[in-house]
Amino acid sequence: MSDNNKEVEVKEEDIFSQRLAKVQELEANDIKPFGEKFEGSSKIEDIRNSYKEDIEELQPAQVAGRLMAFRVMGKSIFADIKDSSGRIQLYANNKLLSADDFKLYKTLNVGDIVGIEGNLFITQKGELTIKVSNFKLLSKSMRPLPEKFHGLTDVQQRYRQRYLDLIMNDESKQVFQQRFAIIRELRKFLEAQDFLEVETPMLQPMSGGAAATPFETHYNALNCPMFMRIAPELYLKRLLVGGFEKVYELNRNFRNEGMSRRHNPEFTMVEIYQAYGDCQTMMELVEELVTTIAQNVFGTLKIKHSDEKTIDLTRPWRRVTYKEVIMEKAGSDWFELSLSDKIKKGKELGIHTDDKMTDIEISNEIYEKLIESTLIQPTFVTRLPEQLVPLAKKCEDDPSLVDVFELEINGQEIAPGYSELNDPIEQRKRFEEQVKRGDEGVDESGKIDEDFLTAMEHGMPPAGGMGIGIDRLIMMLTGAESIRDVVLFPQLRPKNQ
Question: Among the four 155, 249, 255, 375, which has the fewest Cβ within 10 Å?
Fold first, then answer.
């Protein structure tokens, strides 16, 4: 192996200095180290698929990509080149290239981006290879790639330098290719169902549509505060009022809250609204949507995860009420207990309780801390307490509950869905109650959105609506256990903190 690639133990800044000197030497010899366009190249996967072993004619190939290995063996050089579709071996020697070109070729480094022309052949070891007859340096790599035998194993470095992760780890690249395929299938499915993709503001004068802490900014031209949206819901409902009957938005939301393996403060959702539908409409829609995506992208409804569990998406999915799942955990008499007994039993079950908590808060603590993580197979949890979902219709047979579902898969909420509240009088009342709770110290306060209420007062059709967490959906379908593995550039704590 040539000395120019024995860089594992050399400090990166020393390598940078060496390669900077190479760049200057190339420029002094009128060779561009950062080249221009390279036309006519084929994808490596296409070259492999089109190669025919049983013909004698030369089979030319032209590719562009990054050098991933470089082995000088006397007067012969073997290398590997990688593009977005795959990897192929290169072979060059001093007879295939002119003396000057071979000299330049020998100075290439792992990480350099090159254009290659040549003919295909099979080596004695049976490996399809390009015999290099011409090449062009397209971009000199100034810094080394991670050492090939260990790859990029530092998790923080993978997230902070995602480009290196994509270069070195084919598994990471595949996850993101699957992410893009999932989103394409989602759009195709909804468009086939006559949903219209729309856009609503990301900068909003009021934060609404969910209970969350927003990111705040200031609009200089208008001299007023603005908020990054926490949800597009209230704007999408304005479109229902305006006569768009089936709408969706694939959107970025921002919530100024904590980070974890399941939470990123900037995240992707799709929100879907269908006039004249309801909660049941949304359950049927999300079942069909997710199973269609899984079948079309992965070819199966049984999704395997690294911890040896398998998620079975075969329809129909389980439907269970909120009260039923809590009684399964806390006892069949839970909702008959006094508040003091619930506080006591909650502590026995291992959750935090105190004298300031309400019945609903204690029950929801049991659900979120003890139940949600156990719902691995697809489960619709329905009929939640009205106080938890201020934008949904009440159940006709029990006004203390709302006609909603939370879709749980792999121990986390994938999608909430509602029979949407379209009564502006009731909506105003719930907003006022939400503000009052905020005044009492509950972090749900916010000014009442009078513009939204005015829209509702013009008449909003009954509707079904839901939001699907795209990042969590992709985690479930790809087997990823951290949201940072499915977000290209996740938010991270600054290095110096």
Answer: 155
With H, G, I as helix, E, B as strand and everything else as coil, classify residue 100: helix
Number of domains in the chain: 2
Low-confidence ranges of the chain (pLDDT < 50): 1-8, 149, 439-445
- Taking the C-alpha atoms of residue 211 and residue 298, their distance in angstroms, rounded to an integer, is 35
Which residue is listed with tokens 């039923």? Answer: 324
In the block, tokens 């009078």 appear at 450
> What is the distance between the alpha carbons of residues 486 and 181, in angstroms, rounded to a whole number?
13
Domain-embedded: residue 59: yes
DSSP class of residue 135 equals: E
CB 409 within 8 A of CB 314: no
Structural domain span for residue 76 = 3-145
Q: Which of 229, 238, 179, 240 is nearest to 204 (CA)?
A: 229
Helix axes 279-298, 170-192, angle to 10 degrees: 130
Query: CA torsion angle for 333, 337, 341, 347 (degrees, to 10)?
Result: 50
CATH of the domain at 404: 3.30.930.10
Residues 178 and 305 in one domain: yes
Strands 310-312 and 302-304: antiparallel
One domain for residues 175 and 283: yes
Whole-prediction pTM: 0.91
pLDDT at 110: 96
Q: Distance between the two ends of the chain, CA-based, in angstroms?
A: 41
Query: Do 440 and 434 form a contact (C-beta atoms < 8 A)?
Result: no
Residue 124 has a pLDDT of 93
Whether residue 171 sits in one domain with residue 141: no
Eight-class DSSP state of 374:
G
Q: Angle CA(491)–CA(494)–CA(497) in degrees, nearest 5? A: 135
